[in-house]
Design a protein that fits this description.
Layout (H helix, E strand, L loop, with lengths): L3 H4 L6 H15 L3 E2 L3 E3 L5 E3 L13 E4 L2 E3 L7 E3 L6 E4 L2 E3 L7 E3 L6 E4 L2 E3 L3 E3 L7 E8 L2 E3 L4 E5 L1 E8 L2 E3 L3 E5 L7 E8 L1
């Protein structure tokens, strides 16, 4: 695995370092280990790992440990369409409670969150599109605190697993609006 600080040492901003590390990890099929707090306020990290077109082979990219901080509105990560197969393991996501500080846009699919914490963010997905949906989200042993919107909200979902999660001092944990082309839930499992 690599750390964002070792990819391009000359980069000054945490956002540029994290972006470079993720781009490198996707291109070289390796993992990113966060060794400290990375402040991406003012930026959104682009996750370009689309599965369709060009015969892209599916493989997992892991982002492990550390903390990502974003104290303004906007997504922490914005994937290109169908960016897939990402694991976040033991990562802390924090925001000062900025409105609309969601972690992902709806283009991120097959996201696995294991032992992560979310504090002060608006929620996981900024799924505001009437036809938007969440696909293949695994949220295992995560903690949500001071969430201003729903921790997980969606018009529709396909293959969503939530297990062993805690949500406290927050608006609410989950809401399915059930509208649009993909409204409702298909393969929704909430365990523990």
């Amino acid at each position: 695995s690599i750390t964002p600080d070792e990819i391009l040492p000359g980069l000054s901003s945490d956002s540029a370092k994290l972006q470079a590390a993720i781009d490198y990890a996707i291109a070289n099929k390796c993992n990113v280990r966060l060794n400290r707090t990375y402040d991406i306020t003012g930026s959104t990290i682009t996750y370009d790992k689309g599965e369709f077109g060009g015969g892209v082979v599916r493989y997992a990219t892991c982002i492990i440990d550390g903390k990502i901080k974003k104290d303004d509105s906007g997504n922490f990560f914005a994937g290109t369409p169908n960016s897939s197969d990402t694991f976040f393991i033991g990562v802390e996501f924090t925001s000062s409670g900025a409105p609309n500080s969601y972690v992902f846009n709806e283009n991120m699919i097959r996201v696995n969150l294991i032992g992560c914490t979310f504090t002060g963010v608006a929620g996981l997905y900024s799924n505001n599109d009437a036809d938007g949906y969440i696909q293949s989200l695994r949220c295992i042993d995560c903690t949500f605190t001071d969430i201003s919107d729903y921790a997980i909200k969606f018009n529709g979902c396909f293959d969503l697993l939530v297990s062993g999660c805690i949500c406290e001092k927050s608006n609410a944990f989950m809401k399915c609006f059930g509208s649009g082309t993909y409204g409702g839930s298909r393969g929704l499992n909430v365990v523990d």
